[in-house]
Amino acid sequence: MDDITGKSFLTTSNETFQVPEETPSLLTVIIETDPIRWRRVIKRDSCKDPLRKVIKALIVHLNAHISLNNSNKVAVIAAHEGKAKFLYPDFGDFSDSGSNGSNGIAKNGHSSSHQYLKNSNIYRQFKIVDESVLKNFDKLINEDISAKNSGSSENNGTADNNNNKNQGHKNVIPGSISLALTYINKLKMLDDSLSIKARIIIMGISDDSSLQYIPLMNCIFAAQKMRIPIDVCKFSSKSTFLQQASDTTNGIYSFINDNEIDGIIQYLSTTFFIDPSLRKYIILPTDVNIDFRASCFLTGEVVDIGYVCSVCLCILSRIPENNICPTCDSKFDLKILSKLRRKPAFDLNQFRKKKKLNPSNNGNGGDTNGTPTPVSTPLPSTPGN
């Protein structure tokens, strides 16, 4: 006790201590919300609705993030078939008396929490976020079901509708990242005095598509320039493109197997809960086997050496037969194509054949060029011998 009351612990009346304020954080989560794809990929008897299970775990993660700081913000974007939509904040229809405004607060104080939350007597900010996410998620699924039912009743409408959805689903992740970056930039531009840190978490289940490469790389470089890390929580199969996204932006990439989906809340509350400023002090899961090679836009195979379109930077493993870029429909120069298709003047295979025909030695103890092998020099004789 004498040491504690020493002079080094005493303060004068002029000295003041100020506790530094923690910078608020914005967590933006992008989740793929195609229930058919989730059920098709994750086939488990104990988990009949894996997407809803992941949504519930995500809500717990969002509430934990809000509880760290009263100024923390969250945003949830649904990467659905061919479109990206906010689940929170709610930017939907404001005519409904029970709908939330852009800040997630109900207009008249009445809410339909009993339809989505088991206990409505929870922390107000938790209630606003949870209700908005669950309500907009159910609305998105119901709209999808009604659209499919109406499309199936039309003649030849189902096939066209499915083709359009498949084409749109290929670019759903880059579009969602672009929407998230736009929302983050908007918050920073509205108030210059607002100092906020931002990061993005992608919860994906779809496979890579070659059409994603260019728009996804544009989003990656934009996030890197804005110093926004992209964390990836990947299900089903590994994604080379998302691995590159997390590595380039100093984020975290974690692959979750199908039998580990029951422990998704542990992954979110440990690996993805750590603030980027604290990650240098903690041992995080890393993946050293990251493939930075691009994939061909025609075959989808990984390319070591290939061709690049000078207009759209499309990467090709071979020259198209119609001499037209499959991405931007630009016509390639025939003179340049003829040079690229020309065989090299030096045939390496023919050179190897000639080398094999030559004997290994010429019978004089030399090599194939006739150069004699060096012989040891005899020692000089000593006098008297």
UniProtKB/TrEMBL annotation:
Instruction: Kindly state a single biological-process term from the GO annotations of this entry.
Output: transcription initiation at RNA polymerase II promoter
Localization: Nucleus
Residue span of region Disordered: 148-169, 352-385
Pro residues bias: start-end ranges: 375-385
Q: Where is the composition biased (Low complexity)?
A: 155-166
GO molecular function terms here? zinc ion binding
Q: Does the keyword DNA damage apply?
A: yes
Keyword annotations from UniProtKB, A to Z: DNA damage, DNA repair, Metal-binding, Nucleus, Transcription, Transcription regulation, Zinc, Zinc-finger
- Recorded GO CC terms: nucleotide-excision repair factor 3 complex; transcription factor TFIIH core complex; transcription factor TFIIH holo complex
Pfam families recorded: Tfb4
Gene3D superfamilies in UniProt? von Willebrand factor, type A domain
Q: Which InterPro entries match?
A: TFIIH_Tfb4/GTF2H3 (IPR004600), vWFA_dom_sf (IPR036465)
Classification via PANTHER family: GENERAL TRANSCRIPTION FACTOR IIH SUBUNIT 3, TRANSCRIPTION INITIATION FACTOR IIH TFIIH , POLYPEPTIDE 3-RELATED
Please give the function described in this protein's UniProt entry: Component of the general transcription and DNA repair factor IIH (TFIIH) core complex, which is involved in general and transcription-coupled nucleotide excision repair (NER) of damaged DNA and, when complexed to TFIIK, in RNA transcription by RNA polymerase II. In NER, TFIIH acts by opening DNA around the lesion to allow the excision of the damaged oligonucleotide and its replacement by a new DNA fragment. In transcription, TFIIH has an essential role in transcription initiation.
What family classification does the UniProt entry report for this protein?
Belongs to the TFB4 family.
Q: Quaternary form? A: Component of the 7-subunit TFIIH core complex composed of XPB/SSL2, XPD/RAD3, SSL1, TFB1, TFB2, TFB4 and TFB5, which is active in NER. The core complex associates with the 3-subunit CTD-kinase module TFIIK composed of CCL1, KIN28 and TFB3 to form the 10-subunit holoenzyme (holo-TFIIH) active in transcription.
Query: What name does the UniProt record give this protein?
Result: General transcription and DNA repair factor IIH subunit TFB4
* Species per Swiss-Prot/TrEMBL record: Ascoidea rubescens DSM 1968
